[in-house]
Design goal:
alpha+beta; Jelly Rolls; four-stranded antiparallel beta sheet; 27% strand; globular; binds 2-oxoglutaric acid
């Protein structure tokens, strides 16, 4: 049967829930195939406190650099420490709010160490096969308190569509995250829908509210250290943070060692332009750091 919205499975969080101390890799593989998402409780507990500290410090640094931020049309303001701000609600102390924090594998040792965690990589190879590389340098997002930005429902493939399976995302809560704080929603089974048409929204590319609503999605609350895995085509997003403290998350992304972006962009205009250049997409300038297995020489890649 061809997947469409009406045939998506309706499940509970318990159906896709795993615990780090009792992993069943066959069930993980089945959840991935059927639902394109699952959660592993406690997986990043050894790292979460230090990474949270690093995200907090980078966020404070970014706020102090706002006067030197540069504007990118349709995207937002970048501070020198590579933190992205977007417009804030009118009730804010500032006219800009934090979205993506400039904390990554080059700036946080704990974040990089966590990307190479042995158990995490065993889960990832179950999903992607033996040869796996990091896609990009890790991503941290912060929702500021009292209304910090929503991330509208979207597929990551709208931002970075790949040649093969695409990256597996492992999103980790750096603090306990409930509904009020803006816990992540996923739409189980939506990874079978292919890449859907996205529009420009307050949180960049997103699905039209008329087509997809939070009611179509499953909310996954969690404790600091819990990790939600999702497919590049799995619809996901999160609502505002209405609590009185920041809501930080960190995300690792992994892909097959031979995979690469064919269409990239964070606005509809950028994506349309990239679609014109799809024939030029190549692996040669997209070699990520290998975290499992080995990269075989490929003459077709035009790299040494
Ligand atoms: O911060 C979140 O809850 C979602 C982040 C996200 O959807 C993304 O980076 O693709």
């Amino acid at each position: 049967m061809v997947a469409n919205k009406t045939t998506l499975p309706r499940i509970n969080v318990a159906d896709i829930e795993h615990h780090v101390d009792s992993l069943d890799f066959s069930k993980i593989a089945r959840d991935w195939e059927q639902f394109g998402a699952f959660v592993v409780r406690g997986l990043m507990c050894p790292y979460a406190a230090q990474i949270r500290e690093d995200i907090e410090a980078t966020t404070d640094e970014a706020i102090s650099q706002l006067g030197d931020a540069t504007y990118v049309e349709g995207v937002g303001w970048n501070t020198p420490n590579k933190t992205l701000f977007i417009p804030a609600p009118p009730t804010y102390v500032r006219d800009k709010q934090v979205m993506v924090v400039g904390c990554n594998y080059r700036t946080s040792a704990a974040f990089f160490a966590s990307a190479c965690d042995d158990t995490l990589l065993s889960i990832v190879t179950t999903l992607l096969g033996d040869n796996v590389e990091l896609y990009q340098e890790g991503q941290c997002l912060v929702k500021e308190p009292v209304g910090g930005h929503p991330k509208k429902l979207h597929q990551d493939s709208s931002y970075f569509q790949h040649k093969y399976d695409g990256p597996v995302a492992a999103l980790c809560y750096a603090v306990d995250t409930d509904a009020q704080k803006g816990a992540l929603y996923v739409v189980p089974g939506s990874h079978k829908l292919g890449v859907l048409e996205h529009i420009d929204t307050v949180s960049h590319l997103g699905l039209d509210d008329a087509d997809w609503s939070w009611g179509d999605a499953l909310q996954i609350t969690g404790r600091a250290g819990d990790v939600i895995f999702f497919h590049v085509d799995t619809i996901h997003g999160s609502q505002e943070n209405y609590s009185d403290a920041r809501r930080p998350v960190f995300i690792h992304r992994y892909r097959r060692a031979d995979d690469y972006v064919v269409i990239g962009g964070s606005t509809t205009k950028a994506r349309r332009e990239a679609e014109q250049n799809i024939a030029q997409a190549r692996k040669d300038n997209q070699l990520g750091l290998l975290v499992r297995g080995r990269r075989a020489y490929d003459a077709d890649r035009s790299t040494g």
